[in-house]
Amino acid sequence: MQQAITHLVIRNPFGTMDVPGPDDSEVMDYAATTTPAGDAADVNAAAWTSIAALSDPLEGIWASRWNGGADPTIAGDTPDRWKEGRAEVRVTGSRIYLRFDWDHGRRHGLIDAAREGTRLVGKYINLTTPAITRPWVGLVVDGARIDGCFPNGRLDFRR
Prior knowledge:
The chain is 5% helix and 41% strand. The chain is mainly beta. The chain has an 8-stranded antiparallel barrel with strand order 1-2-3-4-5-6-7-8. Strand 4 (107-116) and strand 5 form a beta hairpin. The radius of gyration is 16 Å and the shape is globular. It starts with 24 loop residues before the first helix and ends with a strand.
């Protein structure tokens, strides 16, 4: 008879696999050299979706998009193409969790980030292919825009 693992503690509010080492040295080194501008010239400045904001400035439903890598499960994908999807943001204490999908909901990712004022510093894990993790830095521009980047490209959120 198999014994259930009872000591497993999940940090994120989605009940999925946690992001490993969201505050590790790889994240801190990347964050030390990266700051999204958050200005009108940013590629995330132009509205590219329309999702009504809830009363909370961050929590709730968002749209997501990323580029900077080719997803081998998507025929003809290239690094410069945007992969769009849905997202949900949840705030737990000083941490922000951004769970998102792409490829019509077939692929999923999770960001676990510490909040430093309007700056978000953390790590991304590809929940569909967990070996893929990347440091991520975001900037909460306002209640409808989070500009984000990882070493290879962008991972942005809008509503």
